[in-house]
Amino acid sequence: MRIRSILSTVVLLFWACSCSAPLNTTTEGTINPENKRDWKLVWNDEFNYKTRDQLLKVWEADNGPTSHTLCSRWKENVEVGGGTVRLVNHKENRGGQEWTSASITSYDSFLYGYFECRYKYAAATGTNNSFWIMARNNKIVPPEGRPFELDINEGHYPSEYTNCIHDWTEGNHTSNGDHVKYPGIDFSKEYHIFSVEWSEDEIVFYIDRKEFRREKNDFCKSPAPVRLSEAILSWGGPVTDAIDGTFMEVDYVRIYKRR
C-alpha cells in the first residue's frame, strides 16, 4: 500500500508540473490551485505578447544601474515571443557596470493569495533567477505591516532553490531563509513551478506545488507587486563569460484566491 501511495503522488505531481520532473521536498503537503471548488484565478499573465511595448503596459521594467548587483538592468534586455518572456544577460558596459540584465515589476499590487510562476533558470553560474513580492514603502499598512520582501525563489544554476522572508524595517533588517540543492537536476533545461501561499496568518513555500516550508506571518501584511528579475551576483557562483547571452525564461505568473 505504501508503494502504491508513493507512486500515486509522483504521478499527480508530474501531471501538475506539466513536463517538469517532480522534486522531493521536506514535507508531504501538496496544493492544486486548478481545483475550482477551492480556488479562483484572480490575476494571470501568460506572456502571449507580440511586442515588448505590450508587456510594458502590464509590467514596469528597471532601466538603469543597480548598487547591489554586478549588472545594470534595462528594458531592452526584456524579450517576448513564443508565449514566454526572457530576461537576458549580456556582457556589455552600460550604466557604469560590466554586465546588463533585466527586471520587471507588476503595476498591480496584491494582498494575500497563492502566487505561482513557471520558469527556467539562466544556464550559467553567477546568475540570480528570482520570483518575489516586495511591498512599496508608501503601501505599508500599520500597525502590523512592515516593509517586507518575500523571495519565493532566488534560484542559482544549476540546481539551487532558495526562499526567504525579509523584514526591511529601517535600521533593523532581518531575514529568515532556507535553500536546497537538488543533485542531478538542471533548472535551466526544463520548467519548474515556484510558488507561495501568503495569508494573514501564514506563509507557505512550494516547489512544483509540493510544500517545502511553512512560517508564521508576523509582518507581511500590506499590498505588494509581483517581481521577476534576473541579476548577476557573486554569491550565485563563479561569474564568467559563460553568462553572456543566457536568460531566465518565464512561462506564466498566476495568482489565486481561496473561495
How would you sum up this structure, described in words?
The chain is mainly beta and 259 residues long. The protein has a single domain, classed as Jelly Rolls. Helix content is 8%, strand content 47%. It has 2 helices and 18 strands. Strands 1, 4, 5, 9, 14, 15, 16 and 18 form an 8-stranded antiparallel sheet that branches. A 7-stranded antiparallel sheet has the order 2-8-17-10-11-12-13, with no helix packed on it. A hairpin with a 6-residue loop joins strand 12 (160-167) and strand 13 (174-181). The relative contact order is 0.26.
How is the topology of this model organized?
Layout: H1 2-17, E1 39-45, H2 52-55, E2 59-61, E3 71-73, E4 78-81, E5 84-88, E6 90-94, E7 97-101, E8 103-110, E9 113-120, E10 127-134, E11 148-155, E12 160-167, E13 174-181, E14 192-198, E15 202-207, E16 210-216, E17 224-232, E18 247-258
